[in-house]
Amino acid sequence: MHVIAPGGSAWTPPERDGPLQIHRAGGGALFTWPGALARTRQAPWRLLDGIPFTAGVLHRLRTIHPVDLAVAHWIIPSAFPLLHAIPRVPLCVHAHGADVRLLRQAPRQLREFILHLLLERGAHFVFAARALRDSLVDALPSPLASALMRAASVEPPSIEIPDVAVRAKALRDSLQLDPHQRLAVTVSRLIPSKRVDLVVEAARVSPPSLRYCIVGDGPEQGALTRTSSPSIRFLGALPRTEALSWIAAADVLLHPSTVEAAPTVIREARALGVPVVACAAGDVAAWAAHDPGIHITAPDHRAIARVLATIARRAFPE
């Protein structure tokens, strides 16, 4: 299996990772964390890095022919225009969120042109969330919308959860919580759409028995830190296993994000048996209808604080 990925140089030999051959295609300045859209907003000149990346992908495609199946992660630019350049090869397109939002914001003619081309060549679309699929379908005229529905399925990305029980206990013990204190953890990029400011504001109106930890970094970190209360601890960006350990150490995961599809962190928390307080976004409300461990709250810091306090009392009655 061959994987073409951003970063490095398109002219270096591929890297071997088990059954995978990783082919670098350049474009690292555009596609690294926290993603192309966020990095372009920070520095629009990074869009220029899309040119060598496109050339790198096309070069790699020429070197690994023949191709039996092409799998594109992101509708734009992976499926169109990059993998659309491979003729007569089955194409599976995974839509994750930002690509759908970009298409919805694009001019109508461009949006319909791209989807018409992909559907005409028989592409199958896999959406990370039902809400994501429906939002794109709603932006299309009836014939094209029907064609997309027939060619689409909904499959949240698979996740694997390592055993973090020992590390989670050590992290919780390190906080030296009193027996009556509860811990809420947020794991998120610190950008406006994640609404971590609601966590900071909720902490201000929470009783001393509620402690907060925030895992992640981003452009909002400075402002959030300056306005935070002593009950909040900012942990910065951590490796995934360490972030999972903090989730497992918590009494509740707090996720107030407004722009989501099928948020992995909520699925990880539930797999670890940790209750979740979240605002309705993507498929989260639909999950909550079938999972009593997911609690939907209004995007208001006082409402969030009330729900957190209620969950803490239920889980640990006084």
From TrEMBL:
Stored CDD domains: GT4_PimA-like (cd03801)
Keywords: Transferase
Domain Glycosyl transferase family: 171-310
SUPFAM superfamilies assigned to the protein according to its UniProt record, in alphabetical order: UDP-Glycosyltransferase/glycogen phosphorylase (SSF53756)
Coiled coil: none
Gene Ontology molecular functions: glycosyltransferase activity
Gene3D superfamilies, per the entry: Glycogen Phosphorylase B
PANTHER family noted in UniProt: SULFOQUINOVOSYL TRANSFERASE SQD2
Name recorded for this polypeptide: Glycosyltransferase
Originating organism: Chondromyces crocatus
